């Protein structure tokens, strides 16, 4: 299967990977032929990319880093936790949520430990009614993968996971019309949004079953090395390790996710955003470790090489995530696989998600 931009789809193209909503319900099944109406529906759901069937790439597989069962349970637990705080009517509810969150984080740690490939959240396509819950889960998976790469001990990983999964809980205090506004926020609205970091800290710092360092994750995930972040504008040495990790995971997921007001970036583009801020916004050690954790060029992505050849990413190489194996098919009969981890003189220069041929 191969990745294609939704806006480049044509009627008759065959869907290569099932599309789900955030509750795990099938919206469109693998093997369905796209019609004009279905393509319009995908656009309505703000899905930027899909996988299609392709004669050159039928054997290419993608794997989501956690099971569907764990993903759905995590999304539900995140929703329930946020709702329990929002209602503020039952202290026990949030205490129970704290215990559930620990269980979810441990499940995620177990599944990521058993997932021996680099992380690619482009590998399954989901639509979601409320971005905040899926974003919280994605950020947690990225943060845990980064923590694993940094060889954090298990108890620190659990604390990091709790901080990551609840880092945006302060957004329950933001009015819906501001939080879900499809257009660019004005200055006043942005100031309202910025309050979510401090609000999250206040919610979590005295919460049962939640370590204080998790509250500081909510507090610091928008702080930046040069002091340009918020809410306190603290600088490099004042920012906790977890704050530096979450800054990277949060921004990467934000720019590579489908949003109403812009298309999702591809992973290599999201990584470029992080590298453009290395030393000023983001910690270099965190960004370079993160680069080793993710699929810079996910399986199924069409790429162009510096010698003019074009191919599709077939498989990944751990810790050489920008040097995958490519299936060269343009002007090649028959198609053949080329391992860029061995062909070091060949460089990927561009990605193409527009061509159906």
Automatic annotation (TrEMBL):
<dbReference type="Pfam" id="PF13487">
    <property type="entry name" value="HD_5"/>
</dbReference>
<feature type="domain" description="HD">
    <location>
        <begin position="132"/>
        <end position="255"/>
    </location>
</feature>
<dbReference type="InterPro" id="IPR037522">
    <property type="entry name" value="HD_GYP_dom"/>
</dbReference>
<dbReference type="InterPro" id="IPR006675">
    <property type="entry name" value="HDIG_dom"/>
</dbReference>
<protein>
    <submittedName>
        <fullName>Uncharacterized protein</fullName>
    </submittedName>
</protein>
<feature type="domain" description="HD-GYP">
    <location>
        <begin position="110"/>
        <end position="306"/>
    </location>
</feature>
<dbReference type="InterPro" id="IPR006674">
    <property type="entry name" value="HD_domain"/>
</dbReference>
<dbReference type="InterPro" id="IPR003607">
    <property type="entry name" value="HD/PDEase_dom"/>
</dbReference>
């Amino acid at each position: 299967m191969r990745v294609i931009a939704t806006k480049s789809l044509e009627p008759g193209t065959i869907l290569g990977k099932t599309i789900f909503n955030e509750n795990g319900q099938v919206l469109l099944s693998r093997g369905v032929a796209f019609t004009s109406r279905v393509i319009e529906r995908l656009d309505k759901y703000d899905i930027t990319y899909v996988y299609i069937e392709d004669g050159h790439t039928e054997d290419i597989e993608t794997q989501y880093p956690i099971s569907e069962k764990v993903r759905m349970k995590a999304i539900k637990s995140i929703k329930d936790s946020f709702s329990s705080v929002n209602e503020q009517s039952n202290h026990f509810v949030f205490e129970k949520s704290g215990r559930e969150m620990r269980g979810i984080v441990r499940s995620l740690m177990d599944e990521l430990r058993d997932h021996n490939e680099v992380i690619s959240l482009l590998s399954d396509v989901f639509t979601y009614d409320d971005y905040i819950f899926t974003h919280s889960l994605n950020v947690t998976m990225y943060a845990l993968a980064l923590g694993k790469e940094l060889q954090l001990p298990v108890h620190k990983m659990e604390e990091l996971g709790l901080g990551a999964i609840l880092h945006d809980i302060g957004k329950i205090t933001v009015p819906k019309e501001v939080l879900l506004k499809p257009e660019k926020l004005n200055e006043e609205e942005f100031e309202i949004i910025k309050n979510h970091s401090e609000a999250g800290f206040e919610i979590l710092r005295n919460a049962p079953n939640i370590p204080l360092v998790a509250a500081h994750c909510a507090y610091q995930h928008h702080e930046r090395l040069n002091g340009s972040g918020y809410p306190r504008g603290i600088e490099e040495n004042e920012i906790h390790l977890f704050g530096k990790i979450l800054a990277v995971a949060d921004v990467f997921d934000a720019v590579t996710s489908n949003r109403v007001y812009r298309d999702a970036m591809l992973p290599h583009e999201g990584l470029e955003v992080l590298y453009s801020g290395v030393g000023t916004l983001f910690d270099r050690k965190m960004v370079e470790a993160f680069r080793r954790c993710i699929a810079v060029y996910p399986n199924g992505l069409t790429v162009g090489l510096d010698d003019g050849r074009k191919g599709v990413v077939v498989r990944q190489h751990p810790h050489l995530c920008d040097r995958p194996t490519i299936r060269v098919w343009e002007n090649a009969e028959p198609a053949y696989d080329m391992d860029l981890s061995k062909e070091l003189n060949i460089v990927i220069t561009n990605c193409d998600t527009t061509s159906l041929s």
